[in-house]
Design a protein that fits this description.
The protein has helices spanning 3-24, 30-48, 62-87, 92-113, 121-138. The protein has 5 helices and no strands.
Length: 139
């Protein structure tokens, strides 16, 4: 499949994931809900490994360490997101876009500072629009 189609599928999956996160944010313990999300994520990935064996991937490398760090960060982020959706009094239409745009701004900034990605004029404009959208969302 070409990259454009895969990017569209990825965006649809992430958007659907975010909708499911909102639907999950009712009453109950935010940590338990985050745990259920992660358990089902692991089960899905385990199923997908039937098509791409893990044997080579489990050799310890820095990438495996980063995957563990990513999982820890996602656990904290999901717990906080569920807590915000349940307790903050803010609308979902404020919380989720802020979290998503904010995470993209953090990623772009870290990619520029740490990974030395290039920062073109269009990316600078995108960052500026992202910051402006955050301002408009929280108003």
């Amino acid at each position: 499949m070409n990259t454009s189609v895969l990017l569209i599928i990825c965006a649809i999956l992430f958007g659907s994931y975010d909708l499911a996160i909102k639907l999950t944010s009712g009453s109950g313990n935010p940590t338990a809900r985050a745990l259920i999300v992660q358990i089902f994520s692991v089960l899905t990935l385990a199923l997908l490994t039937l098509f791409e064996p893990l044997a080579q991937s489990l050799i310890f490398t820095p990438n495996l360490l980063y995957a563990g760090i990513a999982g820890i960060l996602m656990g904290f982020a999901l717990n906080l997101l569920f807590s915000l959706l349940k307790n903050s009094g803010l609308q979902t239409s404020s919380i989720l876009p802020f979290a998503l745009i904010g995470r993209n701004l953090v990623l772009i900034t870290f990619s520029f500072l740490i990974l030395r990605d290039t920062l073109s004029l269009s990316r600078i404009i995108g960052l500026t629009l992202g910051l402006a959208s955050l301002f408009l969302i929280i108003r």
